[in-house]
Design a protein that fits this description.
There is one protein chain. With 441 residues, the chain is mainly alpha-helical. The protein is built from 14 helices and eight strands. The chain folds into four domains: 5-60, no CATH class; 77-148, no CATH class; 189-303, BRCT domain (Rossmann fold); 314-440, Serine Threonine Protein Phosphatase 5, Tetratricopeptide repeat (Alpha Horseshoe). The chain has helices at 20-26, 32-36, 109-117, 131-148, 189-195, 224-228, 232-245, 270-284, 293-303, 337-357, 360-372, 378-391, 394-411, 417-440, and strands at residues 12-13, 59-60, 77-84, 90-96, 120-129, 213-216, 261-264, 290-292. It is globular.
């Protein structure tokens, strides 16, 4: 598998794709249910795919034709584009046969919203084409639009090396991140341009609403490190500790009936915020006050007092993992991520199958082979962590988490803030479980 082939999916993608499921997730527009459910679910497996925002700072990478030929020998393909009559703006380019140009496009979510809101029409860029000709022309037309006009395309996949991306970037009116200052709920260019949405502030903190909050680990990327000075755990730990000390109860379920507030650790889009609030209204009959962690941290510090020290169990527990993993410096393809991905990922996939079957020791052996061959994606470490937890091997769970954190700090890209925060929280839990196990024995 070539490196470029692994980068298919979204208009923007990391130079280190995380795993096959994550890459596929980027290639389609998710519907509203996918946007608001299956996230922050304490019962879901750690390896669940990440959302678009949890990828952090991305770079625009695109290439030749965005479509793939199916091998059809028909010569009645065409390329079409949907546009707004009043302005002439093109918002979607597609290819097809028959009535495809006027059919409802389930995966073209934003384009269908625009068709519903505006008076739109369709025109053909080319007709009576072979499939290969249609694939090529579709890419050429997208490139023309993105290089020569200001139209915001809603296509999720666009050609490589265009002068600008499509409309899924944050709006230029979104304020930049600042140290110890809460970000805004943001909008992208499509939302601002076509739907007139604007960035909005988080709610003002009210002490009464901090009795039973839920912390949401969404959208924590490298930019958010600016807000926390690279130490998210300090602000999160101090805030949770002070809330618990003053009688609050931190909940896990976002839609629990007793939830009094949502506290975002990262930022979020206005669109997703509106969707989750609608879901809260449907499920528990009310909207939920929504705060940002920095605002809550400041509020507690100003109104309650100094933060008590955050307890840690590291100094109390001796970690002695026994394993067959090779040292980091002996890993193959250590400086060739693409080759490590190709040679190591098949072992991870096979190991994950064994893990799900309950063959945990065999799964560990395969994960070790994936790691040895150079596979270092978060998915590998998530699988390791879940397997060691199932085995109640807390020493190895803690050790592999420490390795994941170390590698994320030294290699940079490919590991997002949400993943690191999640595994650090699991590390604390593993320490407590190890302490409890040792006290019983």
């Amino acid at each position: 598998m070539s490196f470029l082939n692994k980068l298919f999916g979204s208009k923007k993608q990391e130079n280190k794709p995380v795993n096959q499921d994550e890459t596929k997730e980027l290639s389609v527009q998710r519907n509203e249910k996918e946007l608001v459910e299956g996230t922050n679910n304490e019962n879901s497996e750690l390896e669940s795919t990440i959302n678009l925002k949890s990828l952090g700072d991305l770079i625009t990478i695109s290439s030749g034709p965005v479509g793939v030929s199916t091998g059809s020998t028909a010569t009645d393909f065409y390329v079409y584009e949907w546009f707004i009559k009043e302005t002439g703006e093109v918002f979607y380019v597609g290819k097809g046969r028959g009535n495809r140009y006027k059919a409802f496009h389930e995966k073209a979510y934003e384009a269908e919203k625009i068709r519903e809101m505006y008076d739109t029409d369709v025109r053909f860029v080319g007709k009576d084409l072979t499939e290969d000709e249609a694939v090529e022309l579709e890419s050429q037309e997208m490139t023309r639009i993105l290089n020569e006009t200001n139209d915001r395309l809603t296509n999720r996949i666009i050609p490589f090396f265009t002068k600008r991306g499509n409309g899924y970037d944050r709006s230029s009116n979104t304020p930049s991140f600042q140290f110890e200052k809460a970000p805004t709920l943001y909008v992208n260019e499509i939302e601002e341009h076509y739907y007139n949405l604007k960035p909005q502030l988080f709610d003002e903190v009210n002490l009464e609403n901090l009795k039973a909050p839920v912390f949401l680990n969404w959208s924590i990327d490298e930019q958010v490190n600016t807000i926390y000075g690279g130490n998210v755990e300090k602000y999160l730990g101090e805030t949770k500790n002070l809330l618990l000390k003053n009688g609050s109860k931190v909940l896990k379920s976002q839609y629990a009936k007793s939830t009094t507030a949502w506290i975002y650790i990262g930022d979020e889009s206005v669109t997703k915020y509106n969707l989750v609030q609608k879901l809260a209204l449907d499920r528990i009959g009310r909207k939920i006050p929504t705060y940002h962690l920095i605002d809550v941290w400041k509020f507690l510090k100003d109104n309650i007092g100094e933060f008590p020290p955050v307890p840690t169990t590291d100094a109390l527990i001796n970690i002695n993992p026994t394993h067959n993993r090779v040292p980091l410096e002996e890993i193959k393809n250590l400086n060739d991520w693409s080759k490590g991905y190709d040679e190591g990922m098949p072992y991870w996939e096979e190991g994950n199958k064994e893990r799900k079957k309950g063959n945990l020791e065999r799964a560990i052996e395969l994960f070790d082979l994936a790691r040895y061959n150079g596979y270092e994606a978060p998915a590998l470490y998530k699988s390791y962590v879940m397997t060691f937890r199932k085995l109640k091997d807390y020493d190895n769970e803690i050790a592999i988490i420490d390795e994941a954190i170390e590698r994320s700090q030294t290699t940079g890209g490919g590991v997002n803030g949400t993943f690191i925060l999640e595994i650090k929280e699991r590390r604390e839990k593993a320490l407590l479980l190890k302490k409890k196990k040792e006290s019983i024995n």
